[in-house]
Amino acid sequence: MLHEQPHLFIAWLEQAGISHTLSVPITYTLIIFVVFFTALLTTWLVRRFLIRSLIKIIRNNQMRWDDALTDHHFFTRLSWFVPVLIFYIAQDILLPPDSQWLKFVPRLILCGFILAGIRVISALLKAANSIYRSRHLQTGKTIRGYIDAIRIICYLLGAILMVSTLTGRSPWGLLSVMGGLTALTMLIFRDTILGFIAAIQLTTNDMIRVGDWIEMESHGADGDVIEVSIHSVRVRNWNKTITTIPTYALIANPFKNWRGMTESGGRRIKRALHLDMTSIRFLTEDELDKLEEIRILRQYLRSRREEIRKYNTARGAETSGTINGRSQTNIGLFRAYISAWLQEHPKVHKKMTFLVRQLKPGPTGMPLEIYVFSNDQVWANYEALQADIFDHLISILPYFDLRIFQEPSGYDFRALSKIDSAPIEQ
């Protein structure tokens, strides 16, 4: 019935005195305009009333997962089927029956359906990613790489189907042609292909998650991961700048992920005090008696003194001397003090590696390294704890008659110049 309407309108124009040569193009131009306007108006009405009402209902309900559909414009993209459907209904009257372009109209409409369908699937995949991310926010796991890969495949398949529809050729024939252009395809889409593979590797092997703290010196990245996609990984550095790293670079180049520290419950403190080796010596009995007044050293000192006394007695060593028998050193007692003091510290992790050790002596003195873990991983709290520990240890060094090694400073040179300028008594 619909395809008879153009002929009736053409006949009416001819009765009005317009020639057939003019009445045909006028009729079909008006039809195209009316169909286009109808499609545009219908789409606007659907979006203005139907979709807006639907979005309002979704926003006000108790479920949160469906909000992702509106955030990624799923329903708006779904409305693109409306104009395509109107053109599909009106396809028989868009052009004259004898037009050579008439065979392309169904093909263009089918391409419209394919394109609208791909856009809807893309929005649905994005919404699925948002829903997954919101439900796994604490773990930081992401499926963004898989989602992007599926979207790329959908767009490629859609492009093949559209070209196949327009040219009238089989999709398999187009695929065989594309196979011959593999080298050119690899060259043009090199970054996308590398990113696609890298994103899958990163996600499958759980190498990186949103929220991980990573360091990658080659790209100047040091901060939290805020986005992982098929093309790039975005990192918010501690100075609030954003670094964008190609996804495949995380596979090709080394980077440090601090997630293990976060999950372990502790954060490592590894720092050394460099002691002046000329200040290391044996302690006298009077000095040991004085140090025994320190509560956390008292039990250790008593048992240690008794052990050394028995050892020296059994071997007939001199107990009053320091050469022939065993004696205690100020650095040994200082090391024992550090261990005992850290064991009592409430912010030091007791179930992780706990070491107070001497390193190889060198030009900068005797390094006495503290290798422990704090039970607070927050950066500011960790730094405050580390500073408090070394503030205390440096301050208590004089009790053990030990000195910190440091390079001569201006103060030292001024003190020497005063000594040199002092008058020499005859």
UniProtKB/TrEMBL annotation:
Every Mechanosensitive ion channel MscS C-terminal domain range: 341-395
Example of a GO MF term: mechanosensitive monoatomic ion channel activity
TM spans (from-to): 26-46, 74-95, 107-125, 146-166, 172-189
Signal peptide: none
Record bears the keyword Heme: no
Subcellular location as annotated: Endomembrane system
GO biological process terms, semicolon-separated: cellular response to osmotic stress
InterPro entries tied to this protein: LSM_dom_sf (IPR010920), MS_channel_C (IPR049278), MscS_beta-dom_sf (IPR023408), MscS_channel_2nd (IPR006685), YbdG (IPR030192)
Topological type in the membrane: Multi-pass membrane protein
A GO CC term attached to the entry: plasma membrane
Principal location listed in the UniProt entry: membrane
Pfam families to which the protein is assigned, alphabetical: MS_channel_2nd, MS_channel_3rd
Keywords for this protein: Membrane, Transmembrane, Transmembrane helix
Keyword set includes Iron-sulfur: no
Mechanosensitive ion channel MscS domain span: 191-259
Family: Belongs to the MscS (TC 1.A.23) family.
Matching PANTHER family: MINICONDUCTANCE MECHANOSENSITIVE CHANNEL YBDG (PTHR30414)
Protein name according to UniProt: Miniconductance mechanosensitive channel
